[in-house]
Specification:
This protein is mostly helical. It has 8 helices and 2 strands. The relative contact order is 0.07.
Length: 194
């Protein structure tokens, strides 16, 4: 005979479990406004968004000494990661970030003027250029990534205390893969293919 779970053993209702802060208040307000809302999805969505906003602010503060911002940091990281595999072209960046070529050109020009990246003739196509980090760019991105990683590790200590870092990492990996599948399917979330 199956035992009935007590209230404390049940999966918590995200609205009931919402912290007593502005995030919890926002989740409760939207749940009241849209009763059919998937409350746990909304709660997770909002919490990930909030982490992203704070992480962007932290990245911007860490990037100040190098006169760059979080978007520049992301571009430098991609250039740093990919240059060991193959040359990175400006077109690779605007395709990857879904930005207009003019926006990427502006960023590349700025990073070049700051001495963080070099433009080099592409070995395979003389009409194209490839991008590479300079020693100054390499130093900047290494410093920022290390400092940000220290910040994340400090925040993860709260999860480490309950033994959840590996599980969080695993679940986030599954969740990221689900979102990446949406972007490759060319469907907006929630849309059904005809």
């Amino acid at each position: 005979m199956a035992r009935r779970r007590t209230r404390s053993q049940r999966t918590p209702n995200p609205v009931e479990a919402a912290p007593d802060n502005s995030a919890g208040q926002l989740i409760r307000e939207w749940s009241a406004f849209l009763p059919d809302l998937d409350k746990s999805a909304f709660s997770i969505q909002y919490q990930l968004h909030r982490i992203n906003v704070i992480a962007t602010q932290v990245t911007n503060r860490l990037a100040i000494p190098f006169d760059i911002n979080d978007i520049d940091v992301t571009l430098l990281m991609v250039i740093r990661r990919d240059q060991s595999v193959r040359p990175v072209r400006p077109s690779d960046l605007w395709r990857q970030f879904d930005l207009r070529p003019s926006a990427i050109t502006y960023r590349i020009d700025r990073l070049h003027k700051l001495g963080l990246i070099d433009r080099r003739p592409d070995r395979c196509d003389r009409r194209a250029i490839s991008l590479a980090l300079t020693a100054k760019g390499e130093h900047a991105i290494v410093e920022i990534v290390r400092a940000f990683n220290d910040c994340v590790s400090e925040r993860l200590a709260t999860i480490d205390a309950i033994g959840g870092r590996e599980e969080l990492d695993r679940l986030l990996g599954v969740f990221v893969a689900a979102w990446e599948a949406v972007s490759t399917d060319h469907e907006a979330p929630g849309e059904k293919a005809p």
